[in-house]
Structure formats: C-alpha cells, structure tokens
Specification:
Blueprint: E1 4-5, E2 24-26, E3 38-40, E4 45-48, E5 61-64, E6 68-71, H1 79-83, H2 89-97, E7 103-104
Parallel strand pairs: 1-7
Antiparallel strand pairs: 2-4, 3-4, 5-6
Length: 121
C-alpha cells in the first residue's frame, strides 16, 4: 500500500476526519462552542452539527476536503477532535474512505556522528 510521510501541516490539506466521523462529546464541552454548531444527542452527549448524518460534514469545517481546509472553531474544538492525531488509525481510516493515501509517522533519531551532515530518515 502506498503511504505518505506525515508533516505538521497535513491537516490543512486534508479534512477527511471532519467529513467521516460523528463528532460526539460530553455535553459540558459545548458550553465553550458556538451554540449553533452543536446538536444535542442525549441528556449527556452532544455532537457537532452536520456529523450526525449518513454523509457527515462538520459545520465548523471550512474549505475543500483533500485540498485546503481549516476549522472555524479550532481553539474551542472538542476532546473528540483533539484525540485524532496525524497518521493515527482514525486519521488513516478517514483518509482511505476519501480515497487519500494513508500517512505514516517517521521519527528521525539523532545522528551518532559529530559531523553536521544532512540526515535522510
């Protein structure tokens, strides 16, 4: 399977997770979010509007998936959103569902050499 090395800005050209999962969270988290962005599910749980349907798309997602995206409430996003990390299982599950290449995380170890040569991981 083809993979792509993840970089810190991978989310800015993706948005797959925002259009694949229902973003549900404990109701109290909604108090810091715009009220018109939240849908109540149960007395205990709420979700982001647009994510509780057959073809989800979070109301806070701005832009075109796979090209250029951003979150309209990034600082106030839920714990559910914060749990998805670049190149993790959930990220890649959403990317594959959108026909995107999965990401892999590559960690470079420090060079054992004292020389300051560029290192290829």
């Amino acid at each position: 399977m083809l993979t792509q090395v993840a970089n810190a800005n991978a989310c800015l050209s993706c948005g797959a997770c925002c259009t694949f999962f229902r973003v549900s969270f404990y109701w109290a988290e909604a108090e810091q979010m715009p009220a018109d962005y939240v849908e109540h599910l149960t007395p205990v749980y709420s979700c982001m509007k647009g994510t509780n349907q057959a073809t989800p798309r979070c109301i806070a997602l701005q832009g075109e998936v796979g090209k250029s995206v951003s979150c309209g409430m990034y600082e106030q996003r839920s714990s559910s959103c914060k749990e998805v990390q670049i190149a993790d299982h959930q990220c890649n599950k959403a990317r594959i569902a959108h026909g995107m290449i999965p990401l892999i995380e590559v960690n470079c170890s420090p060079s054992p050499s004292q020389d300051d040569y560029p290192q290829v991981c």
